[in-house]
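#random but structural
TW: two for the price of one
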Amino acid sequence: MPICEWFWSAGERSTLRAWGYNRYLNISVKGEYALQAIFDLATQNSTEPVKIADIAKRQKIPQKFLELILAGLKQGGFVESRRGAEGGYLLARSPDAITVGEVLRFVDGGKTGKATHREHPFFDLWRRVDQAVSDVVDHTTFAELARAWRESQTQYVPNWEI
């Protein structure tokens, strides 16, 4: 199922709406927070549950909203919860087994656009862009993101200030 959504708006202009970061791609707040929560759990090298308050603080997510998101992710089989004083959340699967595309489709309901107007000159271009975005998010795991993040945070950056 494609990640991108193509719509025809007034004035016969095509508009791309997709999950992502640049000016052409928009991700829902719920989707963004879900990705951040899964990412946070993926970066915790622990078999101990992570408290919601800790995730909310590190990722700057409102705790009440995060509680709802994590409950949904639990139903989707992405996270497990543990009760009690030492309770919290853990990934239900290895970070290598969870892709960004999988989480986005689950959280945002697998929205797909109506790629109509095949006769439009840009139809094939938009279809290829859609496929390219889907290929990237469907082949990007949270383990890859965590590794890349750790590497970027440990690189030495010289400071020439005196």
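TW: number two ↓
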Amino acid sequence: MKLTKRNQDAIQAKTPAEYGDLTQITSRYRPDIGDAVCLLVRQGITLKEIAQRLPIKDVTTIYSWRSNHIDFREKLEQARKDAADNFIDKIQEIADANNLPKDEVPGARLRVDSYKWLAEKANPQKYSPKSVIAADEDNPLQIVIDTGIKRDEPVEADYTNIDGSGETITYTEEQHSQDSDDGRSS
């Protein structure tokens, strides 16, 4: 099957050398078509629309390529991260729009919120509003809680035990330590 006029117009901005021969509908992975998919993802175009624009059988073909071809998966992940920058640019364009009629403001706000959400999901390290606290083997996470209590001197504590008769027995820390060493529980 040949590409439709609509699909040919969609990819006409690039030269055949950049896209390769894109005249036959395919479900087999081809690196040139994979690169074209990634280019369009960077522009913020959905995979479903890409499958319609390029000679790809359907969107499930792209999913299959992503699962079966590590190089394509890595390129597609990077393209998604790059698309986040495109979403931020769209937000800026909406924000810079002059003379926006009052009745169009809610729609513009919805588009801005949608683009922000897409940017956060596409590149959370760069655009997520949440702070991520992480540690690794070389830099373990250390949590220090300052209670204001100085621990220079031994802590005096009372250990209370209610025996089987219901009688309360109070131990000092020293007595508790001796009982624990003897195998008694307090």
